[in-house]
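Deviation from plan, reported transparently: adenosine-5'-triphosphate complex.
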Amino acid sequence: MPAVVVKDLKFSWRGGSNLLDIPRFDLDTGDRVFLHGPSGSGKSTLLNLLTGMLLPQQGSIHISGTDIASLSGARRDQYRADKIGFIFQTLNLLPYLSLTDNVAMACRFSETKEAYAVSQHGSVGKAAAYFLERLGLAEPLQRNAKVTELSVGQQQRVAVARALIGSPSLIIADEPTSALDKQAREQFVAILNELVSDLNTTLIMVSHDEALASSFKRSVPLTQLNEVTRLESKVGQSYVG
Ligand SMILES: Nc1ncnc2c1ncn2[C@@H]1O[C@H](COP(=O)(O)OP(=O)(O)OP(=O)(O)O)[C@@H](O)[C@H]1O
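Because the crystal trials were delayed, the predicted structure below was used instead.
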């Protein structure tokens, strides 16, 4: 079953013209996609549509076979918690909790993730420890530290562990590397790809940094998916020509 199927999607912000007009965008299970495009082209808006935080005015989005707009608000929230792992630019970690508790938090909101973590690792705590270890945060002292005691790069890795625990079908990463230097960015993308590939999970990562594209199976410019910007660039080209 495809992980993501977008069909005839149209979206505009209130009172504005069409921002997104995407006839088709499909991802297979295990695809790792780098989505890029100019600032303001609608990348974050598209991610919010894929996760059901926003609903399209036209068209449909199926995630693991479910039309997310057809779910009630409460079921959509639960579906998102069960099926999707997020890595945000702002991390959204809870500063007063330990690393392990921050990672385990994803299972507090999803029995599906909790059950999977327990079936694979014996307990949620062991699953959290496994991912923290894979991400180079193995030291027990580090695991029990508060997240505020870590560097930004280390906090970023905690956010990755929290996104991966419970093996969601889709991982969404929105500008996760913007606070990191070049070397840390490359290391981050390498370990993220490795872990996502081990879990056979689908990954969509958005970044301005096109140098990262070569680390992904697929690199998709949003302008290529989006009829609105495709038409704009054709008009631009005809003026130039
Ligand atoms: N909540 C909102 N209400 C109204 N307009 C919005 C809202 N959020 C975004 N927009 C508009 O939608 C357009 C696309 O924004 P979006 O954040 O999706 O772009 P982006 O490609 O992610 O940009 P960036 O790379 O700068 O993060 C912008 O013109 C923005 O002003």
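Residues 182-199 form the longest helix (18 residues). We consider this an acceptable substitute for the interim report.
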